Amino acid sequence: MVKENLAFVEQKISDACKRVGRNRDEVTLIAVSKTKPVEMIQEAIEYGTVDFGENKVQEIVDKTQVIQDKVNWHMIGHLQRNKVKYIIDKVCLIHSVDSLRLAQQIEQEAAKKNIICPILIEVNVAKEETKYGVTVEETLPLITEIAKLPHVSIKGLMTIAPYVENSEENRIYFRKLHQLNIDIKSKNIDNVNMDILSMGMTGDYEVAIEEGATLVRVGTGIFGERNYNI
Ligand SMILES: *Cc1c(COP(=O)(O)O)cnc(C)c1O
User: Fold this and answer.
1) Are 64 and 90 in contact, with CB atoms under 8 Å apart?
2) Which residues carry this modification: N6-(pyridoxal phosphate)lysine (predicted)?
3) Which of its termini does the chain have fewer beta carbons within 10 Å around, N or C?
């Protein structure tokens, strides 16, 4: 089933790119494998998927021990400062940085390992109370501070749009994040590169691509519904 779903999502991504005149290679699909077993991830790897998203530190640690294939792990969930050290050298990108304190912790751990850690700033564009992320207004000041950290490299922005029945309702939020990305890019801040826009999930990735997403994070659409009770 995973391979059929991947083929379906792949087609939807190509169609969305075509609609707005973008090249398919401008968009990377991240298969969000949180709560899903290693066997399903292996199936996706066989299909050709190389980017996987997880939201729990322990799960990343466990899965990277078992899966030896060269794949890219993305940390897409809320990250506690005391857990940064467990994943810093296992993930290719941390999507969920929303405070200077977290960035400083990443700086400390990255310096210890002599690496530079790529990150995105999570923006709560829709101002939902239940979600993490900084406001649109807080984003530039935060980036200006984080840019001073030598072992942290800002690559762009991420958002989790509201859960909606009609994905069109999220278009304004994707557009707003894209515009914010452009505004910040135009400031040409040292050590900041705004090439990544991580937005769009199973319910709304096509709209997100139409609005400029470069990374889409699709879980349910690839691996099926998640069961949190097991
Ligand atoms: C779970 C999750 C996703 C994937 O959600 P689906 O609706 O299953 O596609 C994407 N992004 C983040 C941050 C997530 O936590």
Assistant:
1) yes
2) 34
3) C
Instruction: Identify the CA nearest to 72 among candidates 26, 41, 105, 43.
Output: 41
> CB of 157 closer than 6 A to ligand 1?
no
Structure tokens at 228: 């949190």
What is the C-alpha separation between 78 and 72, in angstroms, rounded?
18
Q: Residue ranges per domain, the chain?
A: 2-223
Position 137: which residue type?
Answer: E
Query: pLDDT digits over 146-180, tens only?
Result: 999 999 999 999 999 999 999 999 999 999 999 99
Q: Is the dihedral of CA 162, 166, 172, 176 positive or negative?
A: positive
CB 223 within 8 A of CB 41: no
Find the helix packing angle between 171-185 and 136-146, rounded to 10°: 40
CATH code for 2-223? 3.20.20.10
